[in-house]
Amino acid sequence: MPEPQTVDPEVSRAKFARELADYRALEETYRKRGQILLDATFPQVCVMFAVPKLRPSPILACVVVDFTDYDVQPLSVRFVDPFTREPVKAKDMPLPMLRRPPVPSGMPMEIYLQHLQQGQMPVNLLLQNHGPEEPPFLCLPRVREYHENPAHTGDSWFLHRRSGESSLAFILDTIWSHGINPIEHYQFVVQAQMPMIGVGVNFERVPE
Q: What is the pTM of this model?
């Protein structure tokens, strides 16, 4: 169900037009890194993410960013099927979105990255969900789904509203930098005699 528009639609529409123009000014750069604008009609922008460094290049995510009530409300980010635009379930989401923990004091970077690659240190997941059958959401301040989560009632949107880190460009760059850019290769896994194809991550490229 669409979100209700409670502020003057022209305010949200003007912000939508400005941020879309900023995106289009860099659209060729975004496209080369696998970030493809599918369509943009107020109040929604739909962007697909692929991994151009891999061959064949997989499509790993598609998001609808909704400007309804922006910026009295933060932007909404929904992960959808790029072909049907239906919400994807958490169990069907192939994109890992990771955040590295701080480097422990005194630990050489080479050892730190080795521990991460071998799964010996926990990493933070930016994509969260309420169950495998539920849609994933971007657990990040300045995203509507984060601020609507009861666990974040103490972190009001209005504490971040003027930070400049609540724009379309910021959200899409976060998805790319934490999800797409770190991917280095395909990896093949045999599980219960069923071969599976996944993607491998270079933790040196995962932001903190």
A: 0.85
